[in-house]
Amino acid sequence: MVQAKKAQRSAATMPARSSDSRTMRDSDYAALAQFRYQLRTFLAFSEAAAQNAGLTAQQHQALLAIKGLADPDGASVGDLARFLLIRHHTAVELVDRMAKLKLIGRQADPEDARRVLVKLTAKGEQKLRSLSRIHLDELTAAAPALGKILRSFRAKSALRREL
User: Fold this and answer.
1) Distance of alpha carbon 25 from its chain centroid, rounded?
2) Are residues 118 and 106 in contact, defined by beta-carbon separation less than 8 angstroms?
3) Is pTM beyond 0.85 here?
4) Weakest-pLDDT range from 13-17, 44-48, 84-88, 106-110
5) Which residues contact 85 (CB under 8 A, 6 or more apart)?
6) Could you give the CA distance from residue 125 to residue 73 in angstroms, rounded to a whole number?
7) What's the gap between Cα 141 and its chain centre?
8) How many CB atoms lie within 10 A of CB 117?
9) Cα–Cα distance measured from residue 133 to residue 53, given in angstroms and rounded to the nearest whole number
10) Which has the closest alpha carbon to 81: 73, 99, 69?
């Protein structure tokens, strides 16, 4: 959360890009609004699905991050913090809660005992598999709308480059 706020602050202070001088059209705003709407719709679906599975949205994201980082030895707590855009101590608290729920196991990194590695347990794998299936189904359903919006961005970008 803090890192996201820092990103927002730095975005607000970023120098103007060359595209800032181009005129925004109503269709640009409409496309951006639709894109944001699709993202929010998916995130709302994801949060509800996690809750129905007995997880918080952050726990679901953590399971996905641990599995998605795909290191056979596990993900470090630091890796997890970076992936979730949270502070290290917040990731430690999240790992503690998830370990109590038996969703993950942790062990010292055999190469560096100061680092803690986390891996999904069978219970964590099962929850993630179930949630991932329905998320892929939801994305498949949303793909036509998202594709249309993204194509409109590419078309507008190409048209602007020609001008």
Assistant:
1) 30
2) yes
3) no
4) 13-17
5) 1, 3, 4, 7
6) 15
7) 19
8) 22
9) 13
10) 69
